[in-house]
Design a protein that fits this description.
heterodimer; A: alpha/beta; 5-stranded mixed sheet; 3-stranded parallel sheet; B: alpha/beta; TIM Barrel; Alpha-Beta Plaits; 2 domains; two-stranded antiparallel ribbon; globular
Chain lengths: ~700, ~300
């Protein structure tokens, strides 16, 4: 990234030469890339545009990849769907008009968008040309008509706005694919974006439901060809419109049907439910959940929207939320997202050892995202050296708890300052990919980069880390050290330093203390209190520009962080799993899913407006794929919402199948599971993650 | 009032409609050789030992007044003949290797546990099921629990072999929304051989129960060499048809997963070598029920 040599003044009349250069370079690189992309017409179906380019990259394009700078576009949020309304050519006209009278930087910014979209339109036009050529030499009448239709659609959208549903889908597909050809990105409220086209076509009789379904299936297959796994391809259906009316529409239903028909990991479907959601839609969602893939993550408007409003987001925008690449909340078409993760269990370790890390037994730690990728070294991002107190001198649980909070909230404060600085840095120094920026109407009308006003809602988040595992550890201290006086804090710390070697009896004692996820207030209330304090600390922090930082009770890299935390007082050894989000630590929920839901909903989850999800992993034997299974899923879903759940995911696994899939992956390639904020093919995951997911299946749910 | 309970299981989906909490009573007056819950057969508390969970800490040795625990040639032994079931070892065992099966609980304690899932009952048409063992053997305790749950508007179900005096069933009936009754065999001699008791009283009670107000579900455990054939299932279907009220018979296949439980109790598992009925056989038997006019489950 082109960083300036000195900190900038942010007044509008100061021009940053570096930024302008960066903007121009962004556009140049984009255009070079698009000009060299392969033009692809499929052998069947209606959607032009290659799902996956890497195999046809030249060496020059690979080199170009390193120079690409996306800036504000980290692909973790949806594009604004304005290109469906105007077409890229239409946005170019708007940008040209808006350019008049603007300063040099804004002018350069808009020109970059115009130039990039010009290349995009030409790229789409090349598809029209190729399809026309293929039609000309087609031997079959049907084939000729198909190719001519593809060509016609591409011609229209290369020159202006899409005129019908198929053209809208075609344009969305091109846009999504071109946003970042090296990766994939968030899809957003696609049912809302496409509905006006669908509705009109159905009404005038130019489209049948079967045709629409067929196109969506093709789009889904394309998404799966593009990428699979941690792809950020989140699609949100249902929910309210900006005025608070129910926005669930026929496409919301149809997209779920598409997921049920295609049965692959992409896109990851998310569902917004509110008081006004039709029962028939809830039944449809239940069908999707019953499939077992962990598809259909539920978002509860009635809890989330008020919380977003409390954080200063205007109600109309709050009602238009969707989710990012994982589970975090974004405002659809109005915000980007940047997030940072706290390490809660590591904070506990620092508190236990008065600001120092526990010594890990064994070799330096490395981590792999998947078995195919290279390993990299891992270390904590927390600050060591903050003295929260010598725990060996503490005489009550209350003292220990306060020391933990002191350490944890100190680390939270460090992050909040970091985020605060990042907000300023972004605003002063960052530039954005012109492709993405041009989709945001405010960027076009004002000439402002997303970080300088183009995003109408700023979205900076701090995620809490694994609070339930921390609560397990604190509850074990309370029970074993203070209630039962079985050992002293000093003895406990000695056992932790030894990774419990030679301390197995103590470890078992600690393991048998109350654990989160079993509806036991003893531990659940500790977790709820930590969650509440975290959210309140983050929400009350005042940033220099007055915009809030959003708290989330969440943890993305639990798998990685488990490797850098030593043994903990809950009986966990080094590298044993820690939990994800506000779910129980794997293996510890033994009283079924109703207990997990009860445990989780004791916390004020809605305070975590960035997302406060929990996972329910059920055994297939308890939830068969029939009417009975449907009734069970429906009850769990509705009750979870009633009890205060904000975001949750229900997956259903046959543990035997998962274990067999580990042994014989080639025979189980179609097994899809939920990981942390996405779905993936089980056989693609690292062994650690596979074991984590198997251990997640709640006991007492057989 | 209190009673001996072996387990309270939340999220029960096979013990009546909806999502339920099932309370398993300890003590049974049948001795079906295939029983899936052997820890509920004997009325008194008993020690369960799971050697795989033993971490060899030796605390049970230290506290046992009767030298019940021993290691011989690397094997962990339990001399049950010396054991007084005082439970001291289960209190010091942290790994779950030594566990006391059965606990006295009061009506208040049980109802408090049942109340926890009330929101789930409401949304699923669920409630509480009293099972076991044989819940009717602790009739007064059961009645108090049923009355309390009913007064709180919780749907109540009782899972029973109904091998008890009719007037006991009559007494609890006003508080029961649903009875779940197992029928194993029609032939009395055979019934005695495999369960230890005659089925005469059971069948008499069944007829009377069918005329009562509460709902009645019939379940048939399908056990190899006992009733896993068309003839036996057909006979049961005929009998149940005669009850008129019952529309649904659920066939529950035998599974061998209880083996570990028998070993943990030091009990002999006569069904150790039995295999579960095949899917094919279960389909055949279910189609007999369909032919006789019953809804398939």
């Amino acid at each position: 990234m082109n960083k300036p040599l000195r900190k900038l003044n942010t007044q509008k009349d100061m021009v940053d030469v570096q930024r302008i250069l960066s903007i121009k370079k962004n556009a140049e690189n984009y255009i070079k890339l698009i000009e060299n992309l392969e033009v692809f017409i499929p052998g069947k179906g209606m959607l032009a545009g290659k799902p996956f380019f890497f195999r046809t990259f030249t060496k020059e394009m690979w080199l170009l990849r390193k120079e690409m700078h996306y800036g504000a576009d980290n692909c973790h949020f949806p594009m604004n769907p304005s290109f469906l309304q105007y077409g890229f050519a239409g946005i170019m006209s708007l940008a040209l008009k808006a350019k008049e009278g603007l300063d040099e930087e804004k002018s350069a910014f808009l020109q970059a968008i115009i130039d990039t979209y010009d290349a995009v339109c030409k790229f789409i036009e090349r598809h029209a040309e190729k399809a026309e050529q293929m039609a000309f030499s087609a031997s079959d009448e049907n084939e000729r008509r198909r190719l001519e239709a593809i060509a016609a659609n591409c011609r229209v959208i290369s020159k202006g706005a899409p005129q019908n549903f198929i053209q809208a889908v075609q344009l969305f597909w091109f846009a999504w694919r071109l946003r970042n050809i090296f990766f994939s990105s968030t899809i957003g409220r696609l049912d809302q974006y496409l509905y006006p086209f669908y509705k009109r076509d159905i009404e005038i009789g130019s489209l049948t439901k079967q045709e629409a379904f067929s196109i969506l299936c093709e789009l889904w297959e394309n998404f799966n060809l593009a990428n699979s796994g941690d792809t950020l391809m989140n699609l949100m259906v249902g929910g309210q419109d900006r005025q608070g009316n129910d926005a669930t529409n026929e496409l919301s239903f149809m997209m779920i049907d598409t997921a049920l028909a295609v049965r692959k990991s992409e896109p990851h479907l998310n569902v917004r439910i509110h008081k006004g959601t039709p029962q028939a839609f809830i039944d449809k969602v239940v069908d999707l959940i019953l499939l077992g893939h962990g598809q259909g993550t539920i978002y509860c408007d009635d809890h989330l929207i008020p919380s977003l409003v409390n954080h200063g987001i205007p109600p109309e925008s709050a009602r238009n939320y969707s989710n990012d690449g994982c589970t975090e909340v974004v405002i659809d078409g109005e915000s980007g997202i940047r997030f940072w993760q706290m390490e809660a269990v590591k904070s506990l370790e620092l508190a236990l050892f008065n600001g120092e890390e526990n010594v890990l037994p064994g070799e330096p730690v490395s981590h792999k995202w998947t078995d195919k990728m290279p390993a990299f070294p891992v270390k904590t991002s927390l600050k060591t050296g903050y003295r929260s107190g010598d725990m060996t001198r503490m005489n009550s649980f209350e003292e220990v708890y306060q020391a933990f909070l002191k350490q944890y909230l100190y680390q939270v404060d460090v992050f909040l300052k970091k985020i605060s600085n990042a907000m300023e840095e972004d605003r002063d120094n960052e530039t954005c990919s012109p492709f993405l920026a041009g989709t945001f109407p405010t960027c076009i009308s004002t000439g402002n980069d997303p970080f300088r006003g183009g995003f109408t809602v700023e979205n900076y988040q701090l995620l809490s880390g694994s609070i339930p595992t921390v609560a397990d550890a604190l509850a074990a201290i309370k029970k074993v050290v203070f209630d039962e006086r079985f050992c002293t804090m000093a003895e406990l710390l000695e056992a932790l330093r030894a990774n419990f070697e030679g301390f197995e009896y103590l470890r078992q004692k600690l393991l048998s203390a109350p654990k989160f996820g079993n509806d036991d207030d003893y531990v659940d209330c500790i977790a709820a209190d930590i969650a509440k304090r975290f959210c309140e600390r983050v929400s009350s922090f005042i940033t220099p520009n007055g915009k809030p930082i959003w708290p989330g009770i969440y943890n993305i890299d639990f798998n990685m962080f488990a490797k850098i935390v030593g043994a903990t007082p809950d009986g966990r050894r080094w590298k044993d799993p820690i939990c994800e989000h506000y779910s129980p630590t794997p293996g510890r929920a033994k009283s079924g899913p109703t207990s997990v839901i009860r445990s989780a909903t004791k916390a004020p989850l809605a305070k975590g407006c960035a997302a406060s999800p929990f996972h329910i992993s059920l055994s297939r034997s308890a939830v068969p794929q029939n009417e009975k299974g449907k009734a069970i899923v429906r009850s769990l879903l509705l009750t979870a919402i009633e009890l205060g759940a904000v975001v949750f995911n229900i997956a259903i696994y046959d543990v035997d199948v998962l274990k067999k899939a580990k042994q014989n992956p080639e025979m189980y390639e179609d097994v899809i599971v939920r990981v942390w904020g996405f779905n993936a093919r089980f056989v693609d995951l690292s062994e650690d993650l596979q074991d984590h997911i198997i251990a997640r299946v709640i006991r007492g749910s057989e | 009032m209190d009673g001996m309970v072996v387990n309270i299981q939340r999220f029960s989906t096979h013990d009546g409609p909806g999502i339920r909490t099932t309370v398993f009573f300890k003590g049974c007056n049948l001795h079906c050789f295939w029983c899936h819950n052997p820890e509920s057969i004997h009325a008194c508390q008993e020690i369960q030992f799971f050697p795989r969970k033993c971490i060899g800490c030796g605390k049970c040795f230290e506290v046992c007044p009767f030298n019940v625990h021993e290691i011989m040639e690397g094997n962990r032994l339990l001399h049950r003949e010396k054991c007084s079931k005082c439970g001291k070892c289960t209190k010091v065992c942290c790994s779950g290797a030594l566990v006391m099966a059965g606990k006295m609980m009061t009506v208040e304690e049980i109802v408090a546990e049942v109340e926890k899932d009330r929101p789930f009952y409401k949304n699923s048409g669920g409630g509480v099921t009293f099972s076991g063992g044989e819940p009717l053997l602790q009739k007064d305790f059961l009645k108090a629990l049923l009355a309390e749950c009913k007064s709180r508007g919780i749907h109540t179900a009782v899972e029973s072999a109904i091998n008890v005096p009719w007037k006991w069933l009559e007494e609890i009936q006003p508080y029961v929304d649903l009875f779940l009754v197992d029928v194993k065999l029609i032939d009395e001699e055979k019934h005695k051989q495999v369960t230890g008791v005659s089925n005469a009283r059971i069948l008499e009670n069944l007829v009377k129960l069918a005329e009562a107000v509460c709902e009645l579900w019939i379940r048939v455990p399908v056990i190899p060499e006992v009733n896993d054939n068309i003839e036996e299932i057909g006979k049961i279907a005929e009998l149940v048809k005669g009850l008129k009220k019952v529309k649904l018979i659920e066939l529950v296949p035998f599974h061998g997963m209880a083996k570990g439980k028998y070993e943990s109790l030091g009990m002999d598992y006569k069904a150790a070598d039995y295999n579960p009925p095949t899917d094919d056989l279960m389909n055949k038997l279910n189609s007999i029920l369909k032919v006789k006019g019953f809804t398939a489950v």
